[in-house]
Amino acid sequence: QVQLVESGGGLVQAGGSLRLSCAASGSIFGINAMGWYRQAPGKQRELVATEDNGGNTNYADSVKGRFTISRDNANAKNTVYLQMNSLKLEDTAVYYCNAENWRVGTNYWGKGTLVTVSS
């Protein structure tokens, strides 16, 4: 099992920045990728950004150029960050940390952290 704990959400004005963090614990050696998803009110959960152990990243088109995902290489890659710049009203959502174990085909989820962007 992998436990994921997010932090860093909050209220920010449009155009501002926030940095989300997610710390993984437990069976972290099986993790192949970590990332962020978000779910806005009344909408389905969607991918924001992911990074695998090889450093390959994937971003949603809506956040490219504004958000940056990174992982803590000095800490067995068990921490993932999401730097969010130039935030827009439509970025308001609950952001969930995700970890993938490709060998067993399992996804782990954090409880989520709320990001609210105000005008």
Taking the sheet with the most strands, its summary is: 7 strands, mixed
Total strands: the figure is 11
* H/E series: EEEEEEEEEEE
Q: Would you tell me the structural class of the helices and strands?
A: mainly beta
Strand content bin: over 45%
DSSP helical segment count: 0
**Could you give the distance between the termini?**
40 Å
Q: Uncertain spans, ≥5 residues at pLDDT below 50?
A: none
Shape estimate: globular
Share of helix, binned: under 10%
Describe the structure.
By secondary structure, this protein is mostly beta strands. 0% of the residues lie in helices and 55% in strands. It has no helices and eleven strands. The protein has strands spanning 2-7, 10-13, 18-26, 33-39, 46-52, 57-59, 67-71, 79-84, 93-101, 106-109, 113-118. Strands 2, 4, 5, 6, 9, 10 and 11 form a seven-stranded mixed beta sheet that branches. A four-stranded antiparallel beta sheet has the order 1-3-8-7, with no helix packed on it. β9 (93-101) and β10 form a beta hairpin. The mean pLDDT is 94.
